[in-house]
Amino acid sequence: MLRNFKLYTEDDYTAMSQKAAEIFASAVAANPTGAFGFATGSTPEGMYKALIQMQKSGKADFTHITAFNLDEYYPIKPDDPQSYKYFMRLHLFDGINLPANRTFIPNGQANDPAVECIAFEEKIAATGGIDTQILGIGTNGHIGFNEPAQELSATTSYVKLADATIESNARFFATPENVPRHALSMGLHTILMAKRILLLASGKGKAEIMHQALFGPITTQVPASLLQLHRDVTIVVDQEAAKLLQ
Ligand code: PGA
Fold first, then answer.
1. Fewer CB in 10 Å around end: N or C, the chain?
2. Atom of ligand 1 minimally distant from the CA of 165
3. For residue 79, what is the domain's CATH number?
């Protein structure tokens, strides 16, 4: 394992979620006015639940942080239950003491996605940059909506979803045709500029891609493999996702 990686293997999803929440809450405690990067997906839901509990019991405080999310479908309305804006409110933001005016998610309704992407990058830059960025990983190796491809975007961009992602996310929509075909996503530079990465993975479906991302060649065909270039990556996995990492 590369020396820039710290690996925590926990028994199951609940333990993984708790460990990740503790690591994240410590990062916030060390930089209580910092900017932090959030992710959507099934993987961080348990961690968010744990963070809400920690805040309610006085073990975490989010009053002064600024939150940036990795990505959002495009186009999508913010009040659409499948939007990532809605997801974040439901699973975290409405449950913690973080003022709504310091939560930033790319606007899935922006008239001009290119302008929105530039504005989003500028907002991140204005905070001095992201302290800790939470990441999940797609079964195809994507991080954010940076899909396997010959070329990846550096900064926040309007991107096309891979067929594998549409298929995987169709479980949340009435039909696969309802899954938006595009998204706005932080790029690889945006992600790698975070001071620290907190990568979560759970379940046997993630074992193979975690191995490829952490031990395989660095390739744009596995966007998460670019994390090997980052100085400070903390990985929290459950036993099933860790199966091929020992
Ligand atoms: P998941 O998605 O957490 O729902 O598995 C992860 C991702 O696609 O980044």
1. C
2. 8
3. 3.40.50.1360
CA-CA-CA-CA torsion sign (213, 217, 222, 226): positive
Active site residue 163: no
DSSP-derived pairing of the beta strands 66-69 and 103-104: parallel
For residue 99, what are the contacts with CB-CB under 8 A and spacing of at least 6? 63
Reported as a single tens digit per residue, the pLDDT across 45-93 is: 999 999 999 999 999 999 999 999 999 999 999 999 999 999 999 999 9
Q: Is residue 246 very low, low, confident or very high in pLDDT (cuts 50, 70, 90)?
A: confident
Kindly state whether residue 20 falls inside one of the protein's structural domains. yes
In a domain, 217, yes or no: no
Residue 78 domain-assigned (yes or no): yes
Q: Please tell me if the CB atom of residue 113 comes closer than 6 angstroms to any atom of ligand 1.
A: no
Is-above-0.90 flag for pTM? yes
184-222 pLDDT tens trace:
999 999 999 999 999 999 999 999 999 999 999 999 999
Q: How far is the CA of 201 from the centre of ligand 1 (A)?
A: 8
Note if 142 is an active site residue: yes
Domain residues for the domain of 27 are: 8-212
Cβ of 137 below 6 Å from ligand 1: yes
